[in-house]
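Much of what follows relies on a compact textual record of a protein's fold. A complete example follows; check for yourself that the lines match position by position.
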Amino acid sequence: MRGPSCRVGACPLQRVLGWVFGLFDRKGDVMYQEIFAEELGAWRGRGARVVDVRERWEYEAGHIPGSENVPLDALASLKLDGKPIVLVCASGNRSGYAAQLLAQRGFTEVANLLGGTAGWARQGRELTRGRG
């Protein structure tokens, strides 16, 4: 099963806003992917970094094992080392925004984890507490 790709054209407003803010190219090509929890293992198999964009206190309350914490307001400091990146937050909203920001910076192998840590936990998957 594969998550939806974020492609401009779903609605005209999205297309215009994407072009205005530089999040998509003129053709509406895919700039980042949305993936399901089941796909995270495959991304990790390709060497992906899992980056949790929540605040430190949220991250410490429960995060996906092996993820690193880079709060959204510090995302600009994230070094793009050429590895794929999967972004996660509590629900998938902040991490979706973060994916757009990284795509705008030219990063092409970026994904947003649909449902975030809440969806991860609802599926009975493990969350780690503390600093990780």
